[in-house]
Structure formats: C-alpha cells, structure tokens
Amino acid sequence: MKYKKYLPKGIKVSVLGFGAWQLGVDSGWKAVSEKDAQSMIHSALDNGINFFDTAPNYGYGTSELRLGKVFKTIDRSKIVVNSKFGRLDNGIVDFDSKHIKNSVEKSLARLNIDYLDSVIIHSPPIELLDGNKNDHYEILEQLQDEGKIIAYGASIDFYDEIKILLETTNSKVIQSFFNILHQDAKRAFDLIRQKNVATIAKIPFDSGWLTGKYNSKSQFKGVRSRWTKEEIIVRSKLVDKVKEILNNKNSLTAAALSFCTSFDAVSTVIPGAVSKQQLLNNIEAIKLPIDKKTCAELEDFYEREVKELNLPW
After folding, report:
1. Can you list the domains of the chain with their CATH numbers?
2. Do residues 197 and 203 lie in contact, with contact meaning Cβ atoms separated by under 8 Å?
C-alpha cells in the first residue's frame, strides 16, 4: 500500500481508503451482515488501509457503530478517521450550526474514539460555504481547540464551491466527486495545493460504470434508477471510449482508481465495497498505476468529449 500526506501534521493515509457507507444498515446498498462488516474492516487494516470515511446518516449511525467495534480494539494513532455533519443519524438533513457539537460528540461515541481527524459538512448548499456569512466554521474551530477534531472542511464537488470554501475558511479537507468522467474538481487542484488542503476522491467508479459491468442495455433498480435510457446510452459510449484509450494496458477498475490518486492534490480515494472480495479486488487494482501518458489522454478525453455533457452523477 502506498501512502500520501493528509493533514499538515499527522500520519500519512493509504491512497486507497475505506468508504463505509455500505456498512450502514438500510444504507441503500446490498445488506452487509454484522459478521461480514467486521471481516471487511479487519481485512482493510490487515492490507494497510488506514483511512476510514463514514457519516452519521450512513445507516442511521450503524456504519459508525460497526467501525467503532473494531476501533476500540486497535491503536487509535494508527488510523485516520473522517466523519461528517449535516445529514443526521435520524435521517433528517439539517445544516443548522446548533447541531454541530452534538453531531460530532455522538459520532465520537459510536466510533469509540476521542477525536476525529477530520469532520466535513456533508454536501451542503453553496450558501453555507462562505465563512464570512456563517458561524459553522467558528464552531468547528472551537471543536479543534477542544481537541475533538483536528481539521474540518466540506464534501463538495465543483470548482466554484471549492473556491468559496477555501478562500473564506480555514478548511483543510475537501471531499469531491472525482473520476475519469467527472473532473471539474481538478480545476481547483492548484488552489488546493496552495492552501495545503487534502482531497478525498469519492465515487471513483462513477457508481459502477467504471468497473465495466454496465452497458447500454443495463437496467437499474434503487438509487441507480435515476438514469434515463438516454443517459445510460451516453454513459455506455463514453466507457467504451475509455476502454479504447486504455487499450488493454490496464483494467478499467485499476485505471479508475489510479487515475484519481495520480494527482498529488488527491490524498486518498474511497470506493465502496459491499463484500470482502470486492475490497480485496480494489486493493489489488490500486497496485497497478496507469502511466502519465495514459492519464494525460484521459484528461484530454474529458476536456474534448465529456466536459460539455454535464453528466449527472
């Protein structure tokens, strides 16, 4: 496993992180049993993964609870934990700053840890990102002073959002939708480096498209039913073009993960895995980086053929 800088002070994080949405009961994913959840967490640790991303609303707190059962048995200083605020453990979306301290304290209790390495505001509306107009960031800095969090930031996906946040707050962590087919966040990478901010890349497989398991005839249920027939056809054609660029030099899965981590502004990437085998497959895939030429071709492909499509997530 390779490791990169996360916070200005603290240990480096594994370039492959553990996204824990799927551990939550009623998370919208295929159900993961308690036994399988514990096996996946231990397997991640055994294979060098030390970064864990969760949130209060992942399974109404059960994602954090399942992580906490393992965290209480290991050396806290060896792991890096990120949680969130704004989408609460009761399923309600409420970004009112009065909930921040209670949300963080409840996360700490469920996780069986005494501090969070980072807490991020969970996909907030753009008007909450201006530190000059909201008291959220004063409260987050109070939590820093109390030792309950080391850093804070937000889960936001586009350049304009990132620019407002980093220019008006002391945020040190960004989580962004970033993959081969969604590269808008890359426009902020220079600013991110300048501000010494860590980036967590989420949805690296584009909700499964960049694993190669879908095509123009695929049908979807649940959260993936959001795509229209036309959008499915467009996505399928784009994935075929990505495969042409790779030209069998890398598997689609390996390219999707290593594309994200090839940028020095990205500290870690957090694919979801609903089984131990999927987790192990991701661990093997991250060991196969794409070369600089291929990465540049994928960037150019996005600029020429994908950017103007404004693909929905």
Report:
1. 3-208+252-289 (3.20.20.100)
2. no
